[in-house]
Amino acid sequence: MVAFEGEGDRAKAQRFRAAVLPCLDDVYTLARYLLRNPDDAEDAAQECYLRAFRHFETFRGGPIKPWLLAILRNVCRAEFARRGALAAVQTEGMDETAQACDSLWGDSAQSPEAETLRRLDSASVQRLIAQLPDNFREALVLREINNLSYREIGDVLGVPVGTVMSRLARARALLRAAWLAEEGSAS
Amino acid sequence: MTCDEAEVLLHALIDDELDAGHAREVEAHVAGCARCAAQLRAYRTLRQGLQGQGLSFAAPASLRDRIERSLPKPAAMTGRRSVLKGFVVGSIVSAAAAASVSFVILRQDRDSRILNEAISAHLRSLQADHLTDVLSSDRHTVKPWFNGRIDLSPPVIDLTAQGFTLIGGRLDYIDGKPAATIVYRRRVHVINLFVMQGLGPILPAPKFEMVQGFNILRWTDHGLNLLAVSDLARDELEEFGVKFQAATRAASAS
């Protein structure tokens, strides 16, 4: 009996590999942006795959990427909880950055030349995205980098599509302001 | 539409998430509002700036290895065919990743081809969101569905009371011939029961085998070849076979 359960596991592992391993880059990418640290991102991705395998039966068809990214997000939130006080301090810092960005955006919205953006290298853009506050960062990464639809993002975040839309609007406003500020500081 | 509304909705426009009606409304607003028009252009530029960048991170190979190692290994095989079978399993995985399962047939005899194709059909049914053509737990709906679609009359038995829920039927092709597939579920496990004519050996008593990690039970009944594929444990799949046969006998006796 135990041996046959084992056989079932192997068959399950086979289906799991085929369906889920191709999403590893997406999972790792989101983990990098959420946790902002390569080592933590690796741990989170591995934990995500363990949990996903354990709960593979609960996957009810459809695109598998949002299902997997929702698990990853839960893992990352648990990691935030574990970091506790440290995370709280960081988030506070982020809010200030966000407000600074906000006033910047208010100014730059008026200037027509702000419609163009100077090209930044990938590492700089990654850094700007990493500095966005949690709620906006995850919405932006899920849309622009993981290429999820609004509905899928809503499923991952557990919020209505309208909330996805407004977070995305805000995330882009903040990112754009930060991008322009970066240009200003570089020149 | 106000500027406040447009300011949010223009993102949905950029992302191609608006239905035609709302898209027209936003476009109409933008056409008459210089400020929102400037924003739309600005965010399109931002989006292009992001799309042109390599902003993803590639997972390190060591991470991929660690995850691979944490999963249960494919069944250990012994004997001279072990290498070949291992290769078959590997090809299932990579081919399935490309969303189309194609089998490398290494054992050319017809029987193994039938087994391989049944497993292939089983995998497809799980992955391609095509488990059933007719979705019903009522055998009086499932059985007539096969009329005119296939020249055999499959025994469609409702085993819900015995713990195997009938969920529907499907048409498959095994070894180039149509097969009536009856789909059952036991908890989270799917059982695909392929009903075929003249395909496979004559087996009055159910015969269990394991192929590529899947459990298979086969038997013959009234000239029909029945083949059940599942990842269900052996004892439960055999229980399914016993109950199915008992129910068929009861149905033909009454």
Question: What can you see in these coordinates?
Answer:
- The complex is a heterodimer of chains A (187) and B (254).
- In chain A, 42% of the residues are buried.
- With 187 residues, chain A is mainly alpha-helical.
- In chain A, helix 2 (24-35) packs across helix 3, helix 4 packs parallel to helix 8 (150-157) and helix 8 packs across helix 9 (161-186).
- Residues 1-5 and 91-113 of chain A have low confidence and may be disordered.
- Chain A folds into 2 domains: 1-83, RNA polymerase sigma factor, region 2, helix turn helix motif (Rna Polymerase Sigma Factor, Chain: A), CATH 1.10.1740.10; 85-187, Arc Repressor Mutant, subunit A.
- Chain A has helices spanning 2-20, 24-35, 38-54, 64-83, 85-108, 122-130, 134-144, 150-157, 161-186.
- Chain A is elongated, with a radius of gyration of 19 Å.
- Among the domains of chain B are: 3-51, no CATH class; 128-253, MucB/RseB, C-terminal domain (Phosphorylase Kinase, domain 1, 2-Layer Sandwich).
- Chain B is built from 8 helices and 7 strands.
- Chain B starts with a helix and ends with a helix.
- At the A-B interface, helix 1, helix 2, helix 3, helix 6 and helix 9 of A face helix 1, helix 3, helix 4, helix 5 and helix 6 of B.
